Amino acid sequence: MRGPKTSKASRSGASANAARAAPGGAVATNPDEIRPATREVTFPIALAAVLLSFVALLISFSRGYLLLYGDAVAHLGIARRILDSRNPGLIQLGGVWLPLPHVLMLPFVQKLEWWQNGLAGAWPSLICYIASVAGLYRLARYLLMPRWAIAATAFYALNPNLLYLSTTAMTEPLFLALLIWTTLLMVECVAAIRAAGHAVVARRLILLSFFVLAAVYTRYDGWVLGATVWCVVTFTLARYREVWRKVAPSFVFFTLLAAAGPISWLAYNHHFFHDPLDFIRGPYSASAIEKKTAAPGLGHYHGWHNPLLALVYYTRAAQVDAAFWETGFLIMAAAIGGLVLAIRRRLLLPALLLWLPLPFYVYSIAYGSVPIFIPQLWPHSYYNSRYGMEMLPALALFAFLAAQWIEERWSHSQPLVKRLMQPIILLLIALSTVGMMYRTPLVLKEAINNSTTRVGFESALGRQLLSLPKASSILMYNSDHVGALQYAGIPLRQTINEGDYDSFQAALAAPAEHAAYVVAIAGDPVSAAVAAHPEGLTELTILCATGQPCARIYQSNRVAPVPPKS
User: Fold this and answer.
1) What is the pTM of this model?
2) Three-state SS at 35
3) Which H or E element spans position 542?
4) What are phi and psi of 16, to 5 degrees?
5) pLDDT tens profile 406-439
6) What is the SS3 assignment for 392-434?
7) Cβ pair 277, 99 in contact under 8 A
8) What angle, 0 to 180 degrees and rounded to 10, lies between the N-to-C axes of helices 442-466 and 478-488?
9) Given this model, what pLDDT does residue 517 score?
């Protein structure tokens, strides 16, 4: 397989084969040669990622950071209910969130202790973090010298926001791993097509099929990613028809699997929720949540129907997520410079796929009811700042392409530049990491800021639930505060909830007839049902917390609680 095109300056310092004779007649590889990484070279990088991930897990677990995000609690709840439910099975995969993250947590979340402490979500995320670090290094080796590939990988791997997310049940580590490896496979596939390597092309198409399907089942960005990959591969094969004819079966398989993801999810929503676009316009969609959480009288958030302002908010979030203080501006400028350089010199153009999150999130902010709030911009609060993390691979790869180019330009007139520039930048990366940790990384700060009242409320409610007779049935709406059940360690099959549609609707029509206890949280469907059908219910407790709705626990006079075992 022919390697990717390298810059002129990179080739000028080495022979055409980038090798030289060494003492004893051996051939020594030029350390500045841009060449693909072998498995042996990648192994130490992956091992370093393993060590970093476990250090991050130790810190996050010891400080109680694993369950700060309400979304992390909800992801674990969805994974848990697939088997722990009155109606287990495929229907429990449903909702706006796509199913693959929950399937990956499934083997871990059935252990009650790991569900309660959040480790069930940490294990898959840590594996994805390690895979993404190794994948980024391998991808960087197609574009950068080995020492600059190490610098780019260090910038990515040492990012405190990424390290924190990699200890939670959030979906960003999984999607970043899929984005990086899909880009790497596409780079190798396009290179093999141009080199007429039919066997390599066929294998890469099969692998791409599964990675695209996984991305589609992880986040909606993956739908755009899959479509883009298919278009690039198809366009390239169309220019090399002889290759296309020889890999036709693999290409057909790739096409079928790429289309199967979105089609199957539409069919799933149509079958279980009677609307194929339920994830776009249903009660749990982004637009519904935005309407529910918007402050009265303030109108829409900044960036609504304004792509330019949406671009400002997203790129600013990406900068703050990527580097300490205001050095994110420098990183973004360098990455844009590297992007221009790559396009002008036609360097590894398939790697431009890493920039896909930029247009996707600009569109999502402007037209998809997806606000981003960071303290640097009005309204100076915290919401969805983690979305900027999806730009981290692009910033890492292309910013260091620009740094490599600067070194090449200056090294002829300033020999010390070649010797000192990369070590100095590695030192700056370490200082940025320390600075971000000292000031608290933005993504972690958002989690801490937004979890204060929720965690206190759910733990207090969980303690109240623990005082109820064990194994007694509970009618409760779980979408908003499943963390209370998680805290109490109450199996979800013990509750009648919205995940069991028919039994839940029947219970709402007559709460006292279906459960021994009813938990009504102001504003949820159970609260409305109790207001409409209060007969047969006796109020036991009222629990209110600052910034959270009040919860009322009722006992049914018609369904007896399960007596304690003697």
Assistant:
1) 0.93
2) coil
3) strand 537-545
4) -60, -35
5) 999 887 777 787 889 999 999 999 999 999 999 9
6) HHHHHHHHHHHHHHHHHHHCCCCHHHHHHHHHHHHHHHHHHHH
7) no
8) 70
9) 97
